[in-house]
Specification:
By secondary structure, the chain is an all-alpha fold. The protein has one domain. Helix content is 79%, strand content 0%. Helix 5 runs antiparallel to helix 15 and helix 8 runs antiparallel to helix 9.
């Protein structure tokens, strides 16, 4: 590219430090983080062109993995290639990873105390409200608005969406095969590739007290495989990974119970950086610090590999209508699964009138109070939970 031949106006150190700061102070979830990158790097600093930013955002949406982390990796790749992608990715994820490990240690030490249970009584309900709003925003952004004309034109995606809701709500787990089937079917209908049209050959101390080093070799292998699948098959917002994690962590392996899982999602909400970093907290609860490292590495490695592999030739890939259709089909089913997961988890977290009111208040706050960030809602819900349980 012409822009890549020009010497960038920033060094590798500059971009690494920027993402270290963003990973430390960047609250608000993937949409907010993506917005910060555009404001800072395109509008304010001029380190990237509008075209470079849009190409990175398109790649992040087309490839599986957490949206904000992928965009950060791509931005590092633009002018500093593989070493830039590696350092920006690590700098972006590391601060929040350290935070969730520390929170995991505190949770192991104090999770059974009344005040900690009171905190998560309120926080769990607020998380349901936050995820509900995220699911709504993802639905209208990725499928269509709730308008008859728009829904009619996207009827097949809505069918995948409703199917994802139903399957997840009934089975209480996420089905990867359903996602792949939706992607392949939508691609075959909307933009069948040449090989499908003409089949030939298919393409190929305190640490002890918190369980810091407590792990099982078999658990680490299961953690690695499960979280690698999570990183490789989940598209878009970090919250889209929630139903997949719920199906495996709670239902399939029984590593956490429902309340612990809600607490893990809450931890992701109150820490900066990518929401997907909740995998580090989950990994810590299951197998200590080794589990946290394995879970985080397994989740982020696929998106890193996809990004650096596709980035050099992405201009050509982005124009492939078959690939776009495949991703659209998968995304519709994944977002449906997120809604189904909200139903499943909500039935276990909204247990009385106070929790129902907290969840509803979280939704209304996000609708009517502009620029309100999730950590403030979580903090207020924690205070309300303590007050309810102690009065």
């Amino acid at each position: 590219m012409k822009e890549q031949a020009i010497k960038p106006g920033y060094s590798l150190w500059d971009i690494t430090i920027y993402f270290l700061k963003l990973g430390t102070w960047g609250f608000g979830g993937p949409v907010a983080l993506v917005g910060y990158m555009h404001r800072d790097l395109v509008e304010d600093k001029g380190w990237l062109t509008e075209e470079e930013y849009k190409e990175g955002l398109a790649l992040a949406q087309l490839a599986p993995g957490p949206l904000a982390a992928q965009l950060g990796i791509y931005i590092g790749f633009v002018h500093h290639r593989l070493i830039g992608a590696t350092l920006t990715g690590l700098a972006f994820v590391l601060p929040s990873f350290i935070m969730v490990v520390l929170l995991g240690m505190a949770y192991q030490l104090y999770g059974g105390l009344a005040w900690m249970q009171a905190v998560f009584y309120g926080v769990g309900a607020a998380v349901i409200g936050i995820i509900t709003m995220s699911a709504y925003k993802l639905t209208i952004k990725s499928i269509s608005k709730f308008e008859p004309v728009a829904m009619k034109s996207k009827w097949l995606l809505w069918l995948f969406y409703v199917t994802g809701i139903a399957v997840t709500a009934i089975t209480e787990r996420e089905e990867i095969l359903l996602f792949l089937a939706c992607g392949i079917l939508y691609m075959a209908i909307k933009a069948p590739p040449q090989w499908l049209k003409k089949p030939s050959v298919l393409p190929v101390g305190i640490l002890v007290g918190t369980g810091f080093w407590k792990y099982d070799g078999k658990n680490l292998q299961e953690i690695a495989w499960f979280f690698a699948k999570a990183g490789a098959f989940v598209f878009g917002s970090g919250l889209a990974i929630v139903p997949f994690l719920h199906g495996g962590v709670v239902k399939e392996f029984g590593w956490l119970n429902e309340h612990q899982f809600i607490d893990a999602v809450a931890v992701a909400m109150i820490t900066p950086g990518p929401v997907v970093i909740t995998v580090g907290f989950i990994g810590y609860l299951v197998a200590g610090f080794p589990g946290a490292c394995v879970a985080a590495l397994a989740t982020f490695l696929p998106c890193y590999l996809f990004t650096v592999a596709l980035a050099p030739s992405f201009k050509k890939i982005a124009k492939n209508t078959s690939i776009k259709a495949f991703v659209d089909g998968i995304t519709a089913a994944v977002i449906g699964a997120l809604v189904g997961s909200v139903i499943v988890i909500g039935l276990r977290s909204i247990i009385d009138i106070p929790t129902a009111l907290i969840g509803l208040a979280a939704v209304l706050a996000l609708i009517y109070i502009k620029k309100l960030q999730e950590p403030y809602i979580i903090g207020l819900a924690a205070i309300i939970g303590i007050l309810i349980k102690t009065l």
